[in-house]
Write a structure and sequence with these properties.
The chain is an alpha+beta fold. Helix content is 30%, strand content 21%. Strands 4-3-2-6-5-1-11-12 form an 8-stranded mixed beta sheet. Strand 11 and strand 12 form a beta hairpin. Helix 2 runs antiparallel to helix 3. The chain is globular. It binds glycine (GLY). The site of glycine (GLY) has 12 residues, from strand 8.
Length: 334
């Protein structure tokens, strides 16, 4: 891994503004579907957290190549993982909170309109990323939570359902029955984590989205980075897009995604921006070296970066580029 110490990291804001100008999106409203078969549709680049990113990328690419917008692509790609009961940290089948209720967080951001929608602590609706998308499309709000978010979803036709599966109920009952249970953190392979996806259409338009059931056995009412704009996701066509996965309580305190995007705006590469954020976290508190933190980023040219804090929480990520879907393992900073 190249040392960040050697890089020319801090470039001027003026430089970043110039980058933004040259990377302005080629065409109008990113929410309106362009025509299918457009040859420029091959420019899609996606970067998605964890091994399930492969399936999510595949669906996102299918939607985009079929004429959907980049927002459609990111939303529908993430839906695949929300629908999958085998992924017990996202959507349907997610491990519940301490009361045994599955509580979902998600956010999606359109880098052209500079507009995000987010949903916190949503119960009984398995696709919070789609509800978050509707916050953008149907309201002038940005973030909706709890009961209000649930009623909003019902009004839009989302169907309520039990999100606990026999498997996730079993996990909760085992935890609940243990008098020595660890509260609010279960250190197991299955507890990580968020699906985060960042993408570009190849013409400088950027979108970021993420979705999670959050920390297993969290205190009811807890929300963390995934549904907080600037923490779990951020996208700005002038600079890039980022997302985060891991300990959302920790990362919320560093406004992870917007910090990374701002570093790219100042001239950092996506890789530099990711690593620098994790180093900054450790500089401000050395205990963060042991934190479960991983981040992904992309700039408007489609260059990608990612980093994990330590070997114990090493990110696998999936990239879609030039029509190829690849699963890779990311660099560890400490
Ligand atoms: N990063 C997901 C969470 O902590 O809720």
């Amino acid at each position: 891994m190249e040392s960040i110490g050697r890089r020319k990291f801090m470039k001027s804001v003026a430089g970043a503004t110039a980058l933004g100008a040259s990377m302005a999106p080629a065409s109008g409203n990113p929410g309106s579907p362009p025509s299918a078969g457009d040859p420029a549709r091959t420019g899609l680049i996606l970067l998605t957290t964890w091994q399930w990113g492969v399936k999510a990328n595949e669906r996102a690419a299918e939607v985009f190549q079929g004429g959907g917008s980049l927002l459609d692509a990111v939303e529908k790609g993430i839906n695949v993982i929300e629908d999958d009961p085998a992924v017990m940290t996202v959507g349907y089948g997610g491990v519940p909170n301490a009361d045994g209720i599955v509580s979902l967080d998600a956010a999606i951001m359109d880098g052209t309109r500079h507009r995000a929608g987010s949903i916190c602590d949503l119960h009984m609706i398995k696709n919070p990323i789609s509800v978050a998308r509707q916050v953008i499309e149907k309201t002038s709000h940005t973030t909706m939570a709890g009961e209000g978010a649930f009623l909003f979803a019902l009004k839009l036709g989302f169907k309520p359902e039990q999100l606990l599966t026999p498997e996730s109920l079993k996990v909760w009952m085992k935890w609940k029955a243990n008098p020595n249970r660890k509260t609010f953190w279960l250190k197991s392979e299955k507890n990580h984590d968020t699906i985060g996806m960042v993408g570009t259409d190849g013409k400088g338009h950027m979108v970021a989205g993420c979705s999670t059931s959050g920390l297993a056995f969290k205190i009811p009412g807890r929300i963390a980075d995934s549904s907080l704009v600037g923490c779990g996701v951020y996208a700005d066509d002038n600079a890039g897009a980022a997302s985060a996965t891991g300990d959302g309580d920790l990362m919320t305190n560093y406004c992870t995604s917007v910090s990374i995007v701002q570093a790219m705006a100042r001239g950092a590469s996506p890789q530099e921006a990711c690593e620098d954020l994790l180093r900054h976290m450790v500089k401000s508190d050395p205990r963060n070296k042991d934190g479960q933190c991983a981040v992904i980023a992309m700039n408007p040219r489609g260059e990608m970066g990612n980093a994990s804090m330590n070997q114990g929480f090493r990110l696998k990520y999936s990239t879609w580029k030039d029509g190829k879907n690849q699963l890779q393992e990311g660099p560890v900073v400490y």
